[in-house]
Design brief:
With 451 residues, this protein is α+β, with helices and mostly antiparallel strands. The chain has twelve helices and 15 strands.
């Protein structure tokens, strides 16, 4: 609604479009429903809209929750009747969402709206109204104190002077609230009990600003299983590992890395190695996960696997590119028979093929997935997961992994050690490689005791 002469067109920030799909929901009905992140987003958009209002020569003066609505396109001023020309004196006003100088009346400045929006910010971010009139109001949470010191100063001269300054203080508070991200990695590899040569390999790297929250880190995690026999698996695995290491170096330079393109580059490198060395064929299975901006994207060829542990549950994110898997998808083999079939080791796709199978190399996770606190990725070769198919059902496999990966009594390294030891004890007839990457969000400040 824009019924005051001279008001700017603020549909982008404050006023609902005339064709809005739904009427704005009153903010006062959402006070306890918004997360801190959502509240910070809404507050910034409110401040940007109020900056437009101030630039057009108007003040809001009273910014109580009932004045606002949350519309389809953003925050909405549901009532514009209280808007005041900035050059006009106002009658004395005293509410929990108006500046101290408003109680005296007269001509106000944009700093008055800074205070009013600051009171609303306090309500949204702490869960309680700002008790200005109490002799000793409760302290806000530590990371928010800088914000409120800046926007709730009683003296307008000490307060953020306008909405751009409010936005700057808000963004600093967002940085202070961002958790510290920790990514811990543990890996194990073994030739197994029956092999002399280990043709597996793995690679991992994590770097960035751990203090910038979920978006501050980049990383790359990979497990490669070189194919034995005449396919020179040890050399193929090494070439793939070197290719993935170059991909990680590109991440460190700030370049975007597409895991599918990186897998294609590894495929080309393996073929080039085989041709240059005159070895005929060379092949490897590989699973690759790239971490950027708090999201994981995956590429995969062969029967190496990636699993995700989340909140007590385990999900297999990749599907084996084996003849047994083809027969299972076609309905020729049941799930149980496919798990035990000798054809599960006959690969349909791997690194080193002339025709790169783009459609199969893209794992079925679309554009990737966001990581959550406590997530653990498991990348592994078939030397690890082989005995699961022999001895466990799919449900038992998930239960076993959930038990081991979710065992908080063990360090991540000891969980990796247990997985390797179990595989060696139950089978051990093949090379065994596994990599665990655990993702945690750590509070920047300790929890404070309630007042």
């Amino acid at each position: 609604m824009n019924d005051r002469p001279g008001l700017p067109n603020l549909a982008r920030h404050l006023f609902a479009p005339t064709a809005a799909t739904h009427p704005p929901c009153p903010l006062e009905e959402q006070l306890t429903a918004l997360s801190s992140s959502q509240a910070l987003d809404w507050l910034e958009r409110m401040a940007l809209g109020l900056a437009d209002l101030h630039a057009a020569g108007w003040l809001a003066v009273n910014l109580e929750p009932w004045v606002w609505g949350l519309g389809d396109s953003g925050p909405v001023l549901r009532e514009t009747g209280a808007l005041t020309p900035a050059a006009a004196p106002v009658a004395p006003m005293d509410s929990g969402y108006s500046a101290p100088e408003a109680a005296r009346g007269g001509v106000l400045t944009p700093a008055a709206d800074v205070y009013g929006l600051g009171c609303l910010a306090y309500r949204l971010l702490t869960g309680r109204p700002y008790a200005r009139f109490e002799s000793s109001p409760a302290d806000p949470p530590l990371p928010l104190r800088g914000l409120f010191d800046r926007v709730l100063a009683e003296d307008p001269a000490r307060r953020a002077r306008d909405m751009p300054a409010f936005v700057a203080a808000l963004r600093r508070a967002r940085e202070e609230l961002a958790p510290v991200v920790a990514v811990e990695v543990a890996a194990r590899t073994s030739a197994g009990r029956a092999r002399e040569c280990n043709e597996d390999a793995y690679f991992h790297g994590v770097a960035g600003d751990f203090g910038r929250g979920e978006t501050g880190l980049t990383g790359l995690f990979a497990v490669i299983d070189g194919l034995g026999g005449e396919q020179h698996g040890d050399r193929a695995a090494l070439v793939a590992k070197q290719t993935f290491a170059r991909g990680y170096a590109a991440l460190l330079r700030g370049e975007a890395v597409d895991p599918l393109a990186l897998m294609r580059a590894a495929n080309t490198a393996v073929m080039a190695m085989a041709e240059e060395a005159g070895t005929g064929r060379a092949g490897a299975a590989a699973s690759l996960a790239v971490l950027e901006a708090g999201r994981i994207r995956i590429a995969h060829l062969g029967d190496t696997r990636i699993y995700r542990y989340r909140a007590g549950r385990v999900e297999q994110l990749t599907e084996d590119h084996s003849l047994a898997a083809v027969l299972r998808r076609a309905g020729v083999l049941s799930e149980a028979r496919a798990r035990r079939s000798k054809d599960r080791s006959r690969l349909e796709h791997c690194l080193g093929q002339p025709n790169f199978p783009t459609d199969r190399a893209a794992a079925d996770v679309g554009a990737g997935f966001g990581l959550e606190d406590g997530d653990i990725l498991l990348c592994c070769s078939d030397g690890l997961h082989g005995w699961w198919g022999d001895e466990l059902s799919a449900e038992q496999e998930r239960a076993y992994l959930a038990e081991v990966l979710g065992d908080a009594r063990l360090s991540l390294d000891r969980r990796a050690a247990r997985l390797l030891a179990d595989a060696m004890r139950r089978d051990g007839g093949d090379n065994i490689t596994l990599l665990l990457a655990a993702y945690r969000l750590l509070p920047r400040y300790p929890e404070e005791a309630p007042p």
